[in-house]
Amino acid sequence: MVAVQRPSSSLRRPAVGGPARASLRGLPLAIGGLVSVVGSTAVIATASAAWWPNLVLVAAMLLLGGIAWMITRRPAGPRAVLGILAFAAVCQVPGLTLAPITSTDAYRYVWDGRVQLSGTSPYSHVPLDDALARLRDPILFPGLSPADRSGVTGPPRIPHDPAALTALSADDPRTRINRPRVPTIYPPVAQAYFTAVAFLTPWSAGTFGLQLAAAALAVGVTALLATELRRRNRDPRWAVLWGWSPIVALEAGSAAHIDVLAAALLVAAVITAARRAPVITGLLLGAAASVKLLPLLLLPAFTAVRRHGLTTPLVAVGTFVASYVPYVLAVGTLVVGFLPGYLGQEGFSDGSSRSAILGLVLPPMARQLVTAVLAIALALLAIRLHGRQPIAVTCCWLYGAALLLTTPTYPWYGVPLIALAVLAGRAEWLAVPVASYLAYASFGHELRQGLIHLTAALTVITAISLRHRSGLRRGPVPRAGGSAAGMIPPS
């Protein structure tokens, strides 16, 4: 059967009704943007309850998928991308009007930046340290003035005993900063970001500077995605799955999580990789890893067993290591901060609070072994598929599979996956970050958490199976360099 190509929009018969009918083309976009804004506001406004915000979040994400499908059924007008960006900015506004909701991490970000501006290292001093009393203010320390003494001095020794570790990392009612008795865990590029924002933000603004910066980053990623989708002959309006996402609204303008910065760097790395710029790609990937360690898991996607196939991963690792050098020279081994304690507390050392899906059928130690074997197998598969499918697709399933295998406690870890799913055209992976929020609301209920993550995994597997069967019926698909390879079908 010979495929019939649809005529381009410039050759179509003029629409009946002239300008009046043409103006209606923007109606789905306007309605979709309004619903997304209302949905994001509802999620933020109901966040005081335990389950309601998560149920609203699921409904909002399902509605967002329908909106994306609806607005891409019509030809894109010349101002479509501008409309998407405008509504993406408006979606961030509700979060900017309130203090962070999903976590208190932003207060730690503010503190780390302030400490560095004072000429001290957040790796060698803890927030309650009396040596830094002059840096306290009523927003970060509502119960502790600069004249008060906390009794804490110097960096602590991180214990191995779980009970002692829990006691050391407990919150303190005198400050909004979480884990105020331990040093920071955040890598150097994240620290540079905190410092830059702190330099531009007065103390009286609290976390607002970081919230505004994260909101701007989220809108910037929307523009980056839309531009790249258009370059690949994709409908740029699919970028709404990121820009209008209530999850992005929660974790950018509201919580100011640095995962948004990691997402921006990862998207840029994938784009430059597709344009065959291995050194720049490595620099971006290494910078992303120095914001949040998870991007290191994507190194296999950028690795090929051939000449120059190791350029990107080597540059990425070199960039990551080099970012630590100034801090190592300043504080020595203290540069690791609380990272070992954090990994132990979060269950990476014994597998007790990770791998919720495998936890449905396996004990902790066996869970760890199976997770390691599966992770290695996925890494080898990613290396083998290099050049055979778009790198965005490989990064998407590799990152998503890592989240399903380890099932992190904190749902904002999945924010970069949203951007990768849009870029790869694999919308089914959005089920993973959504499931993470439901599991977050079920903290302490391991069976329920495992079933929630399992549902997300089955959703992804089902979608992949259906796509594979559809591909078999259609015949061969374009190679990785093709304009539509691995992408959601254009409208």
UniProtKB/TrEMBL annotation:
Q: Which controlled-vocabulary keywords does the entry list?
A: Cell membrane, Membrane, Transferase, Transmembrane, Transmembrane helix
Please provide, in alphabetical order, the Gene Ontology terms of the cellular component aspect for this entry: plasma membrane
Membrane-spanning regions, if any? 27-45, 51-71, 80-101, 208-226, 247-273, 279-302, 314-339, 365-383, 390-411
Q: Does the record's keyword annotation contain Transmembrane helix? A: yes
This protein's major location comes to: membrane
Compartment(s)? Cell membrane
GO MF terms held by the record: hexosyltransferase activity
Annotated membrane topology is: Multi-pass membrane protein
Which InterPro entries is this protein grouped with?
GT87
**What protein family is recorded?**
Belongs to the glycosyltransferase 87 family.
By what name is this protein known?
A: Uncharacterized protein DUF2029
Q: Which organism is it from?
A: Kribbella steppae
